[in-house]
């Protein structure tokens, strides 16, 4: 089954032209940040790619990228290598090149206001204090892009700096909840592509986000 799926991934005739969606996972490049809370967007995108039988590895738009089909829909997946605070530079370059509207851009990122293990779909909104989202809003001049938020919990106490918290690694006893949330985030993206954001929100947020 995997072999057949892999063959379909390399049917380049189906990948001609522009994608319908851009799926952007946020994070920081380099081994230093691989398992940190701020890199949930990268992790979830890698989970999605692995489930679909491809890797995100082609360098383009200052990002690691892949142009693939997901459930029959052509998608451009990207992990900006610009560091979190400049994520918008990479994403808007791809948006302009492929002429993709913000409504067809799905951004996956961490959210400390949500408990670990929870995932939530939003149609649009403010940056919520997230520097990656802030950069995207600034560079694209729009906050009207759908997003998948992955809960990472709040800092353990009020004196714990938020910057240090989001750059801290997940603990071993958090692994089960983290893995489940990353898989749900990948599922959320599929629902958004297949059914649209509104239906995905109605179907997903209630059923898979009970921790909220």
Structural class, by secondary structure, is: alpha/beta
Query: What is the level 1 CATH name?
Result: Alpha Beta
Count of individual helical segments: 7
Q: What does the radius of gyration come to?
A: 16 Å
Question: What does this protein structure show overall?
Answer:
38% of the residues lie in helices and 19% in strands. By secondary structure, the protein is of the alpha/beta class. The protein has one domain (19-208): Rossmann fold, CATH 3.40.50. The longest helix is centred in the last third of the chain and has 21 residues, at 175-195. The protein is globular. The termini are far apart.
What is this structure's SSE topology?
Layout lengths: L1 H8 L11 E5 L14 H13 L5 E3 L2 E8 L2 E8 L6 H12 L6 E7 L7 E4 L8 H10 L6 E5 L10 H5 L8 H21 L1 H12 L4
Question: How do you describe this structure in short?
Answer:
This protein has 212 residues and is of the alpha/beta class.
List keywords for this structure.
212 residues; alpha/beta; 7 strands; disordered N terminus
